[in-house]
Amino acid sequence: xxxxxxxxxxxxxxxxxxxxxxxxxEKVTAVRQDVAAGGPAANxxxxxxxxxxxxxxxxxxxxxxxxxxxxxxxxxxxxxVHDVAGxxxxxxxxxxxxLVDDATGERSVVxxxxxxxxxxxxxxxxxxxxxxxxxxxxxxxHPEIARAVLAHVDGLRPRxxxxxxxxxxxxxxxxxxxxxxxxxxxxxxTVPADIAxxxxxxxxxxxxxxxxxxxxxxxxxxxxxxxxxxxxDGGVEVGERGTVPVPRVDVQDTLGAGDAxxxxxxxxxxxGEDLPDACATAVRVASVRVGKVGPRAWLAHLPELSEPRExxxxxxxxxxxxx
Length: 323
Hints:
Shape: globular
Order of helices and strands: EEEHEHEEEHEHEHEHEEEHH
Distance between the termini: 21 Å
Radius of gyration: 19 Å
Strand order of the largest sheet: 5-4-1-8-9-10-11-12-13
Structural class: alpha/beta
Largest sheet: 9 strands, mixed
Number of helices: 8
């Protein structure tokens, strides 16, 4: 069984499905309510566990009733949690208010994310006691956790592959993207011009910062991927690139679709798929997600992912052909 670490944010998502969005000073009656663990890293870990990977979530939960509800959901989904905050420590775990439009499946989210409090870095000996990862995914939240895990991973030999989930730019990505074997970015992701001067787009920006491969999702449109090519003057440009088609789906619920993509991408890479195949696997999984209502019911409909093929090449830093 492959081992995948997911480093970053955990929230409690309170999800209401309603026939429309309320206007100013207006109320609407929900037709469905769900409560589940959320956050990019946590949702990706849940997806990976459902795909029969050993999913380890390195995050901050702490004590209190909100954390208990989150732990119960993650335990039920067989996600191993390494809680940097500690199970006896009071911690303001974020609660996300989510509204899903019953007519379109589109979601709106209000959340403090990780902005309420800074969390401590995990202890090196605690990280060393966890099962060794094949792939580590960072979502860019909780920068102190991310930097500590990155330092730990960089010291492992062979070093696990690193996937960076870039939804929108965060300062810590300046540290994470140079280490990334795959930068998995949303269509809204932009590298600031002063960080990557001359970047043509998100793909190019991630490659300029040192990522060994980049992927961009575009909702229902094809996923694009690219590898870097170094010019004679030492500069980096987009080299080999391609697209992965996205099937037409009757969209029911877009909440966590990107997280499902990233969780499946991590598992596929850990199992030895090359980048185009791993993107195709992740697309299949994300397509199942958006076609089902609710944050958890879709997991029962996941497609099977095969174990590593004989002779397959993983995405590790010493195997550039693997991506």
